[in-house]
Amino acid sequence: GLLLRYMGFMMFFISDSVLVMHHTGYRLPWPEMVVLATYYTAQYLILYGNIHTGLHGKAKLI
């Protein structure tokens, strides 16, 4: 569960980084698709990680 949540947070970081790069003039191929794909993947990973952690109860809350 914790690894999934960490991966989700990293996907949010990538999503936000692409947004910043795009808005500052750096040209990327398909920036909207990259942002949407990473954003929704991040949400899924964090949610699934939370559910998985809740079912097993082995992870500590931060």
Provide an overview of this structure.
- The protein starts with a helix and ends in a 6-residue tail after the last helix.
- It has two helices and no strands.
- The chain has 62 residues and is mainly alpha-helical.
- It has one domain (2-56).
- Helices cover 77% and strands 0% of the residues.
- Helix 1 (2-23) packs antiparallel against helix 2 (31-56).
SSE blueprint and pairings:
Layout: H1 2-23, H2 31-56
Helix pairs in contact: 1-2
Give me the Rg, rounded.
Answer: 14 Å
Quote the distance from N terminus to C terminus.
13 Å
Instruction: Let me know the average pLDDT.
Output: 89
Helix content: over 70%
Total strands: the figure is 0
Low-confidence stretches: none
